[in-house]
Predict the 3D structure of the following.
Amino acid sequence: MNWNIVEPSAGDRIFECDKEALKVSRAKTDGLDFRLLPEPFVGDVEHAKVILLNGNPFFDESDIEYPLRQEFEKRAQANWQNRHDQFPFYYFDPRFSTSGGARYWIKRFRAVTNLTSADEVARNVAVIESFPYKSKSNPKENSWLRKLPSVAQLRLLAEKAVTRGAVVIALRAEWAWSEVAFIEACSNPQQPYLTEKQLPNSFRSIIGAINS
């Protein structure tokens, strides 16, 4: 899929594929914020050995004024086109270590990076969101937003990861991934961490895949 962005005069960012279905005024009542770029996935989703299935990207108010926002958004858009540097999972790029996303993700990988390395995780792990637009809370299970074309494309990416043999884990919004054959769901989706406690049946598989 070509993840092209439409930028209306109001400054909202939505994907071209969603422009007919997405009614911006209605979506905002569901707690979404379109001032920041959507984030359908992070990392090399076509080749990553470990795929984490998530809910939707968290809206962090501080990212509006993030000093490296322009550089960060260019990097994120390159990721959509499968153009990667040494940090496909770009929140591990030291340049972006103070971003809201880096603060969220790096601590969740601590148990994994202790047994591998940040560089290996950045190369071998990717996250696919069930819904690409940012909010402070996950859209409801029955939300009309779940029918957007971008959502169907993200589900297809997850199914392809299963087919090629990646270790596929559901971190959050397990119900959104019911049609995908993931290995295990995180035991604490409200505060997910990649630890043996939260992923007792797959944690060692994650470490093995990253180190292989």
In short: DSSP finds seven helices and seven strands in the chain. Residues 5-211 form one domain.
